[in-house]
Amino acid sequence: MEMSSTTTVASSYYNVTKFAQNFSNDSNGGPFECNQEINTNGLSDFIVYGIFINLIGLFGIFGNAISMIILSRPQMKSSINYLLIGLARCDTVLIIIAKKRNKNKSRKVAIQKARIK
Predict the structure, then answer these.
(1) Where are the bilayer-spanning segments (predicted)?
(2) Is the dihedral of CA 30, 35, 41, 46 positive or negative?
């Protein structure tokens, strides 16, 4: 009795056809991860996430550092410049956090592609 109730719960909770498709030799559907198709355009992912986003982040950090240096000079002391320095600091922190999230995303994509092979 317990076996049939467990099977009923599992079949209603999971999509059994997609689960079986992962273990079949059919090439028409391809493997699925969490009921989503796996991204297979690796070159475009590498160019976008590996090169462009990193270059934009590095230019952003460099530009913010230059603006913080210039705005913190003694002759540039004003309340507006202090606000701009704070804005540049917050922007730099945001860029660093975004780059770390991008790094984690690219690792997940690489792990998924390694599972396919």
Answers:
(1) 46-73, 79-98
(2) negative
The enclosing H or E element of 28 equals none
Name the token pair of 99. 């780059």
Q: Which tokens hold the place of 52?
A: 């462009």
d(CA 7, CA 56): 51
Q: Whole-angstrom Cα distance, residue 66 to residue 85? A: 10
Cβ atoms of 45 and 109 closer than 8 Å: yes
For the segment 61-117, what is each residue's pLDDT rounded down to a tens digit? Answer: 999 999 999 999 999 989 999 999 999 999 999 999 988 887 776 666 666 666 665
Supply 13's token pair. 């909770």
CA distance 98 to 89: 14
> Which residues does residue 32 pair with via DSSP β-bridges, in sequence order?
37
Q: In which residue are the tokens 């991204």 written? A: 39
